[in-house]
Amino acid sequence: KTILKWLMASAGRAFSTAVTEQLQLLPLFFKIAPVENDHSYDELKRDAKMCLSLMSQGLLYPQQVPLVLQVLKQIAKSNSWHARYTLLTYLQTMVFYNLFIFLNNEEAVNSIRWLVIKLLEDEQLEVREMAATTLGGLLQCHFLEIDNPMQTHFEQLCKMRLPKRRKRDLSTVVDTIPPADLVKRHAGVLGLSACILSSPYDVPTWMPQLLMDLSAHLNDPQPIEMTVKKTLSNFRRTHHDNWQQHKQQFTDDQLLVLTDLLVSPCYYA
C-alpha cells in the first residue's frame, strides 16, 4: 500500500513514465486492480487502479518501449482474466499518450497488433469484448491499418464450424459446442465488428463485404448473435444522417441484404 501511495504521488507530478524498477511492478498492479468501478472495494484495489491509470498516461522514452511491451505480453498469459482485461485498458491509454513514439517503432506496432488480436481469442467473454473495443480504437486513430492479412484472419476465424441448431431443442445447442470453437468464431466476429465500427462516419471500400460477412452470423449462438446485433445497431446509428451518400458504396444485392437486416424483426429483438 505504501508503494502504491508513493507511485501515485510521483506519477501524478511527473510528465515522464516510471523508472524500470517501477515498471517491473506492473504485473502485480494488474492482478490487484479491479475491473469495475466500485466504491465498495478496499483502499488497496482502488489505489492500484488509480496507479495504473496514472502510469499509463506517462510519457515513454523510446528505450523503455521494449520493457513495457515485454511486461504486457507477460500479463497476457496470466491466469487472472481481471489482469488480462486491465492490461487492455492500460494499453489503450498508454498508446494514445505515446502515439508518435510507437509509430516510429514498427516492431512495437506489430507487437501491439499481435497482442490485441490474440486477446480477441481469450476464453473470457469480457476480455474478448475489451480487446475488440481496443482494436476498434487503434484502427480509428490509424495506429493500425485494416489490411488484407487482418481481414483474412478474421474471416478464417468466422468459418469455424459449429453444430447446427435443432428446432425442437434450442436450449441445449450451446452446451454441445466445444468452447474453443465458439471462442474462435466469436473472435472472428468481434474482429469484423471492430473494423466496421472503426469507421463511424464513412464507408471505405472494404466495409460492404465485411458487413455481408458479419450478417451471415446473425443466427449464431450467443454471444455471437448479440455482437452482430450491436454492431448493426451502431452502424445504423452512425451512418443514418448521410445514408443517401453512404449507400452508393453498396451493390444492389448488398443493399437489399443490409436493408432487410436493419428493418427485420430480428434486428429489434
UniProtKB/TrEMBL annotation:
Domain spans labelled Proteasome activator complex subunit 4 C-terminal: 183-269
GO BP terms in the entry: proteasomal ubiquitin-independent protein catabolic process
Keywords attached to this entry: Repeat
Molecular function (Gene Ontology), one example: peptidase activator activity
InterPro entries found in the cross-reference section: ARM-like, ARM-type_fold, HEAT, PSME4, PSME4_C
SUPFAM superfamilies for the chain: ARM repeat (SSF48371)
TM annotation in the entry: none
A GO CC annotation given for this chain: spermatoproteasome complex
PANTHER family named in the record: PROTEASOME ACTIVATOR COMPLEX SUBUNIT 4
Protein name from the UniProt record: Proteasome activator complex subunit 4 C-terminal domain-containing protein
Organism expressing this protein natively: Micrurus spixii
